[in-house]
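It would be a great kindness if you could assist me with a short task in structural biology. The matter concerns a single protein, recorded as an amino acid sequence and a row of backbone structure tokens. The record follows directly beneath this note:
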Amino acid sequence: MPELDDVELPLGEAAYRRLRADIVACRLSPGQRLTERGLASQLGMGVSPIRDALTRLDHEGLVRTIPRKGYQVMPLTIQSVNELFDFWAIVGPELVRRGVTGASSDQFDRARMLATKFSQLTRHTGADTRKLALDSVEAIGQFFDLLAEATGNRYLIAAHRQVTGEVQRVWTLVIESELVDFGRRVADLDDIGDAMSRRDADIAADLIRRHIERSHIRVLEVLARWPSVVTAEVVSN
């Protein structure tokens, strides 16, 4: 999704985009406490747009309200991550199937270009693996953004909007831990560009399903190594 300069946006929208990006990128960590006044001071905004942004993020499940104490970035637990990927394995493939089928020529061309980018990122040598991994997560998120829009189904779009932020947040934590094999993580998407070129919705959906299922296993394998998981909440090491 193209980023607009904050000065071109209403303050509430600018605050929402900034806070959402910071949560997804884990610059605001899972479990971190937030206050309206603290965020207003940090972002140089009034309390009202911050409150509006936090209300939207609460509805999306990225923050939660703590009565009389402010807000908290939604914590992650092994159970919540497990449930997240279970749900995404149901929604993601159908979103791709319907998106490929219903996409306009422009939407499809942009999605196809993003699909071919996944495997290309793994072929760079001598580059910063962490940056490549984060770039891949961003490209995959943009791919799903486009296809969600192409479905024209507001319920699928809403489900995608909530889930994709959580999935990106989990992967960012895993990548930052430097315990994940980046090349192996995206290898199962090598054929997605070909499926998109042939506009084969069923094969594209099946590839995404397998990718989500394998990602689910890999993420749980990595998180299980973290000492913090024994205390229920997953936090960055």
Remarks:
- The beta strands are 33-34, 63-66, 70-73, 76-77, 233-234.
- The two ends are 30 Å apart (CA to CA).
